[in-house]
Specification:
Helix content: 40-55%
CATH topology of one domain: Jelly Rolls
Radius of gyration: 18 Å
Shape: elongated
CATH superfamily of one domain: Jelly Rolls
Number of strands: 8
Strand content: 15-25%
């Protein structure tokens, strides 16, 4: 029953980007694997060459990089009903600059990227899903994030993050939010007091 629910939510998430034929859905379903991550478990280590994409049925992950001085920079959070991967490294087949860690116990539906690419040759609607997903999340979404980080003050970035992610704020620890905003936890405390 749990697996059926995960498959249903997985294909509902795909339908937000493209409608799959019954044949494409069946072929794709045969490639899927289910995985559980414990809180603080590393899904992908920084420097690894990724091979999989995962759908988060339930849980929360951070996509981060550890800098030479030891600072942690969080680029994104991936929560329930979203797809997660080190996308640039996956496409280029090079070691990734980012790691992915579970911030909560997490349930995943995952698939091998190379197998998925082969399926796209036989089921073009899967290619439309992939293109649409990349356009929305890694082109348009990335551009907005870059502008926000470059031109808004730390307080404005925090207010923007709160407005766009009201449910996420309660699930994150202060140091995670600070690492995402590019401020120290102390600076974030000051910002919260001002608000």
């Amino acid at each position: 029953m749990e697996i059926d629910n995960r498959l249903t939510s997985f294909f509902a998430a795909i339908a937000q980007y493209a409608v799959l034929s019954a044949d494409a859905e069946k072929a794709f379903a045969e490639q899927l694997h289910f995985r559980k991550l414990k809180k603080r478990e590393i899904y992908l280590a920084q420097g690894d060459v990724p091979q999989k994409i995962a759908y988060i049925s339930h849980g929360l992950l951070s996509y981060y990089s550890i800098q030479e001085n030891g600072d942690v920079v969080i680029k994104r959070f991936f929560a329930d009903n979203s797809f997660v991967a080190s996308t640039a490294a996956l496409i280029t087949k090079k070691p990734g600059a980012f790691a992915i860690e579970a911030l909560e116990d997490t349930l995943l539906v995952e698939f091998q990227f190379d197998q998925f690419k082969q399926l796209m040759h036989h089921h073009t609607e899967l290619a439309f899903f992939w293109i649409s997903y990349l356009e929305i999340n890694w082109v348009a979404g990335k551009e907005e994030q870059e502008i926000t980080l470059k031109y808004l003050t730390a307080k404005e970035r925090y207010l923007d993050f709160m407005a766009k992610n009201p449910g996420l704020i309660k699930r994150l620890r202060q140091h995670h939010i600070a690492a995402y905003l590019g401020v120290t936890p102390t600076q974030l405390s000051r910002i919260r007091k001002e608000i």
